[in-house]
Write a structure and sequence with these properties.
The complex is a heterotrimer of chains A (318), B (566) and C (297). With 318 residues, chain A is an all-alpha fold. Helices cover 76% and strands 0% of the residues of chain A. Chain C has 13 helices and no strands. The two termini of chain C are 16 Å apart. Classes of the chains: A mainly alpha (318), B alpha+beta (566), C mainly alpha (297).
Chain lengths: 318, 566, 297
């Protein structure tokens, strides 16, 4: 019952947050100098009347708040509008791009978890040992490496020098599209993304595990003579889940829309690169549409993360 | 703990099984994929090409078909030919659709959908085109004059708002912005099945019309579109799987990443030698590595897919590539706001820019200094413009003598997107400083740049243009009242010379003296200080030949003529 | 975890001996000490070296070939338009460090008061501020920054301010958490009982107890800001010509030839970025250990 009320309460609060995000982004986009007309009218033969006609047709001649309300109105009707740049429905453009992004960031996350959890846990279990140095070292380098730098280095090493992996795109050009090929193209970009995530997660893991391992009840359990692995595994991990879950929650915005630089460098057709293109073309409907999708994913994601807290630790009440 | 770890592992494995049952992600229309032994061989040939540099990495699959991959650095917008003015989109459109003619860099025109064309002698307002009788749509229907008329009418239809309407504004029966005038007869008619006639509002040399207007006039199939009400055409499903008459037939696409075509083996100008054609979007930094590994076969050229300056040396050493430094028609210039900068100072600026450093040092000689909008090998070029004046002391003196306010800091605008142009900004800033003009560089993205320049919110701005074989190409940019009158010029003399006087006569001999004078007037008035022509640095796999890169900026790659060694 | 005017259990601890303790613990942390030295050296180098050697990152040297390799005149060669790469590297360091530190300061100055007020007064103020923080944090910052930067023209100051403003939620949340627990403590209640004004309670009693997490958040925020600025400049949306920053120098390296054949152009800024951020992170860790807080950020 409580949980249900909690969910309702969170959803209600999410609404103004969501609206706030849309207002913020709409306002900012409308403040950008110039308008989509400049892009559309690259034609040297264009006349001012044509531009005026286009402006009217796109509704750009009206004050910003009216345009926003129009947009909001159609949003509530389930319509994300039509892109100025492509003329396609924004919803279908986003649908095309969201898959690649989620797979890219999802794979990066999977790689991160697989590498970081063991390293972080071992480091906490045996602090200041060889394990700890390796994992702390990895963590620090991971956090410090700007991902475009890592991308350049990876491309140079693995594509140019060794030639194991392709440097751009999702498939090769033979017309055949298989999962194997797809994952082959996925390796470099997701590894690059994973680097920073790994750095951050190892540190998180190590820190929260250490805290737990030094707590009274764990020391008591050890003192009682229980075997190490069960101690480690049963008592400590269970309590270290929460910071990990909250770490994961903090990565959600990044996962849905933050891989912009990586997508640009590797030519990966995801949501981030669509956002950059739309910003450059002042394609307001697309900018707003992507914003809506990102905002919803983040808000829902945060809600789910908070619910997981409750599942993992019944002591947390609402 | 083991329990939750194994739970998690189970979930991961289960989802992997589930995923493997579905097809890999791709968007848009997609044919079912062919599997067989292809994937394994693909992986090897596609990527172990570093050892393979002597021989081209063949993109063949089990069927032995030939695939050509062309790389561009930015994606296309749409498949609706008149709903865009973006060069990347044009590169794709001209594969699927046909234009009436093809413009070559040397100013000549060759047949495409039209075999013959002529302009009437008395009024100079009637252009007649005879269409190739073998032309067919991808669905087998013949292409007729009705299709041409339909396309033009569609573009003039008031219910559709699109940025290429200016094309049809030239023809009678439309108002000044190109919308169909209700009580007049439309100036595009089909005289018979294969003859179309265009009636112009004002006389204009056919070579200008062909080079500027018909250059990107793509013909659409009336029989597939005419039943759709005009208001719904833009959102019609036709565009998700377009049918054209061009050398490539649309097969599928992944939004923002690639488009895949099959060759139109019935193409009326000759079947292409490839079986499949793929256009891929590749970041500029990966172009060379893609070429080296065989992932891509040819760059798109024409500024849409050029080898970056820094990679040029390495590109030229690759054994599997042919490289070309193509003399393109496109130029870059410094637009000067005539309202803020008086004529003597503008002339001084023109004299103070070190074009040699830009061309020979920054561009490593892959380009040419510009004396005006026409390159020195252009048939209309005025030799008297050479040598380009360069005299720092004289320029500094002119600035001083003119009483120009040198204590102010002026604005030099540049936009992002062209690496060489961005790099010239600090060089020009230094050149201007040497004659006493201090500037601040403002870099913005392209739309902002265009908007501010159109409004005149600048003193100096770096802008580029595609150029043309027709000498009147630059006139619109100095025409008072025109959208792209960046220099805020109010003197109509340039326009009168270039587009009024120059349009009364139609032969080369008659036009030559007019445009020679036009160029001298430009040198005197300096609304723009022309900087350089940048060569297109392109590279392609050695197995391809007979590619004419010089024509690419004129939107034709004539892919059916490419020769591909097996 | 106590410092400042009033400690948690009510005793006023002499600031001096506490500081001595902290410094002693800090100096035990070898990596942090080394990092501190490296960072200080870096700052001194980028400020002083160009002045001493009279380096000019803006002027083209027309006598050399653009893009030349290292030589006596140009220790790291020249860039694509003939400017001294070594000078640009050092000046770039100034810009990158400046953006990093100043934007972290902006985030702090914006975030701390907001978090303080939200945690202390609670109620509607808390809701509004925390929801605002949610809004800012929910959004992929790169996207917001790109939009903002195209609204205001890209430049060093724009980038600094934008990154700074977007960083406030981190500080606000950190403080908020601390304030929540601090305000329930007995001494705060006691202070309220004797009629101490809100403002005084916040600044004298609560704020000093948040010093540790704020300082740590500051170091990590600075590191993050440096990375963000370099990513922005790398995308071409950050620091613009003719200014140099480590990010926009790396922008040039987007070519295999440069990567493979001209390492003197990209290695210095790349490695410098790596080292700087590493050191800031070690420093933060060291401070955290020294202040003996269990906070994991």
């Amino acid at each position: 019952m409580n949980r249900f009320r909690y969910i309702i309460k969170r959803l209600l609060i999410a609404i103004p947050t969501f609206l706030g995000i849309t207002v913020l982004v709409y306002l900012l986009s409308s403040l950008t100098p110039s308008s989509p007309l400049e892009i559309l009218f690259n034609d040297p033969m264009a006349t001012k009347e044509q531009m005026a006609a286009m402006e009217k047709a796109l509704g750009l001649d009206q004050p910003v708040y009216i345009q926003y309300l129009h947009w909001l109105g159609s949003l509530l009707g389930g319509n994300l509008g039509t892109s100025y740049r492509t003329g396609l429905p924004v919803a279908s453009m986003i649908a095309d791009r969201i898959g690649p992004t989620l797979i890219l960031t999802g794979t990066a996350m999977a790689i991160t978890i697989i590498i970081s959890l063991p390293l972080g846990i071992m480091a906490a279990y045996k602090p200041y040992s060889g394990w700890d140095y390796i994992s702390s070292g990895t963590s620090f380098v991971g956090v410090a490496m700007p991902n475009f730098f890592a991308a350049l280095v990876f491309i140079y090493l693995f594509n140019v020098k060794i030639g194991w992996f392709p440097s751009s795109g999702m498939y090769d050009s033979s017309g055949v599209r298989t999962w194997g090929m797809f994952f082959h193209h996925l390796v470099l970009p997701s590894s690059v993304l994973a680097i920073q995530l790994i750095g951050s997660l190892i540190r998180q893991c190590r820190g929260s595990m250490m805290e737990v391992l030094q707590s009274d009840y764990v020391r008591t359990a050890r003192a009682k003579g229980l075997l190490e692995p069960p101690v480690l595994v049963r008592h400590a991990l269970r309590n270290a889940w929460i910071p990990l879950v909250s770490w994961f929650g903090m990565q959600i915005p990044f996962l849905i829309g933050g891989a912009v630089v990586t997508e640009q460098i590797f030519g990966w057709p995801g949501l981030g690169s669509l956002m950059v293109q739309s910003i450059n073309a002042r394609d307001y409907p697309a900018i707003m549409g992507i914003t809506v999708v990102i905002a919803i994913v983040v808000l829902v994601g945060n809600l789910l993360v908070d619910l997981m807290y409750n599942l993992l630790d019944p002591r947390i009440r609402y | 703990m083991k329990h939750s770890f194994s739970k998690a592992a189970a979930v991961v494995l289960a989802s992997m099984f589930a995923l493997s049952a579905c097809a890999p992600p791709s968007a848009g229309d997609s044919q079912p994929t062919t599997q067989a032994a292809a994937p394994e061989t693909k992986a090897e040939t596609g990527t172990s090409a570093q050892e393979d540099q002597g021989t081209a990495a063949e993109e063949t699959n089990a069927g032995g078909s030939v695939t050509i991959t062309m790389a561009m650095t930015a994606p296309w917008d749409t498949f609706i030919p008149f709903n865009t003015t973006n060069g990347n989109t044009d590169a794709v459109l001209e594969l699927m659709y046909d234009k009436l003619i093809v413009v070559k860099a040397n100013g000549e025109h060759e047949p495409r959908l039209a075999d013959e064309w002529e302009q009437d002698d008395e009024t100079g307002k009637i252009l007649t085109f005879r269409l190739n009788e073998n032309a067919k749509w991808h669905d087998g229907e013949p292409v007729t004059a009705e299709d041409v008329v339909f396309t033009a009418k569609l573009m003039a239809n008031e219910a559709i708002t699109h940025p290429r309407r200016s094309k049809v504004a030239f023809f009678t029966g439309t108002d000044s912005s190109g919308v169909l005038a209700p009580d007049e007869e439309f100036g595009v008619v089909a005289l018979d099945e294969h003859t179309v006639q265009f009636t112009l509002k004002d006389p204009s040399p056919i070579s200008y019309m062909l080079s500027q207007t018909f250059r990107d006039f793509y013909v659409l199939p009336a029989h597939l579109l005419e039943d759709i009400p005009a208001e719904e055409i833009m959102t019609s499903e036709f565009w998700q799987h377009p049918v054209g008459s061009g050398p490539c037939i649309y097969e599928s696409d992944i939004s923002g990443e690639r488009i895949e075509f099959t060759a139109n083996k019935d193409y009326y100008l000759g079947a292409p030698q490839f079986d499949r054609f793929v256009v891929r979007i590749v970041p500029a930094s990966n172009l060379l590595s893609g070429l080296m590994s065989g992932e891509i076969d040819i760059t798109a050229g024409a500024g849409l897919g050029n080898i970056p300056m820094n990679d040029w040396d390495m590109a030229q050493t690759q054994e599997n590539l042919t490289t070309e430094s193509v003399k393109s028609l496109g130029y870059q210039y410094l637009s000067i706001n005539v309202k803020n900068i008086p004529k003597e100072v503008r002339q001084a600026v023109n004299m103070a820019i070190n074009r040699d450093a830009i061309v020979n040092n920054l561009m490593r000689g892959e380009g040419e200094a510009a004396a005006g909008p026409l390159r020195s090998n252009h048939p209309y070029f005025n030799q008297e413009l050479l040598p380009i004046p360069y005299d720092i002391e004289k320029a500094a003196q002119m600035v001083k003598d003119s009483g120009f306010d040198t204590s102010k800091t002026y604005v030099l605008r540049v936009s992002q997107g062209n690496e060489v142009r961005e790099k010239t900004a600090p060089l020009i800033q230094q050149d201007l400083a040497k004659i006493g003009i201090n500037t601040e560089i403002i870099t913005t993205d392209h739309p902002t740049h265009l908007a501010e320049c159109r409004l005149g919110n600048y003193d100096f701005a770096l802008i580029g243009s595609g150029g043309s074989p027709d000498p009147a190409e630059s006139v619109v940019n100095v025409r008072p009242g025109h959208v792209n009158n960046f220099s805020q010029n109010e003197d109509p003399s340039l326009y009168e010379k270039g587009m009024v006087e120059g349009f009364q006569v139609f032969t080369y001999e008659e036009r030559l003296p007019i445009y020679q004078e036009y160029q001298m007037m430009l040198r005197d008035q300096v609304p723009f200080s022309w900087l350089y022509f940048q060569n297109d640095l392109v590279a392609y796999n050695k197995r391809i030949s007979n590619v004419h890169f010089e024509d690419y900026s004129l939107l034709n790659r004539m892919v059916w003529q490419w020769e591909i060694a097996r | 975890m106590t410092k400042g005017a009033v400690s948690r259990d009510g005793r006023e601890i002499a600031a001096n001996s506490y500081m001595k303790d902290v410094i002693q613990r800090f100096s035990k942390h070898k990596l942090a000490m080394i990092s501190l030295v490296v960072l200080v050296a870096e700052v001194l180098l980028v400020i002083l070296l160009p002045m001493i050697l009279k380096l000019d990152p803006y002027t083209t040297d027309y006598d050399t070939f653009f893009g030349a390799g290292p030589s006596a005149a140009h220790w790291l060669g020249t860039d694509d338009i003939g400017r001294d790469s070594f000078a640009r590297f050092l000046y770039g360091g100034r810009v990158s460090l400046q953006v990093g530190i100043i934007s972290a300061v902006i985030s702090l100055v914006a975030g701390v008061p907001l978090g303080l007020v939200a945690g202390y007064y609670r109620g509607i103020i808390e809701m509004v501020i925390m929801r605002l923080a949610d809004i800012f944090m929910s959004f992929p910052s790169m996207v917001l920054i790109l939009v903002l930067v195209s609204v205001l023209r890209p430049s060093v100051s724009t980038v600094t301010v934008v990154i700074g403003i977007l960083g406030w939620p981190r500080f606000a949340r950190t403080i908020y958490g601390n304030v929540l627990s601090a305000r329930e403590s007995e001494y705060v209640e006691a202070a309220r009982a004797i009629g101490t004004k809100d403002g005084a309670i916040m600044t004298r009693y609560i704020l000093p107890n948040t010093f540790a997490p704020v300082l740590i958040a500051f170091t990590f925020r600075a590191a993050q800001a440096i990375i963000t600025e370099s990513s922005l400049s790398f995308l071409g949306m950050g620091v613009q010509a003719p200014e140099a920053s480590w990010g926009n120098i790396l922008y040039q390296a987007q070519s295999i030839s440069v990567l493979a054949t001209r390492p003197w152009l990209w290695m210095p800024p790349g490695v410098a970025l790596l080292i700087t951020i590493l050191c800031i992170n070690f420093l933060g860790d060291g401070i955290r250990d020294a202040l003996d807080t269990k906070m994991v950020i």
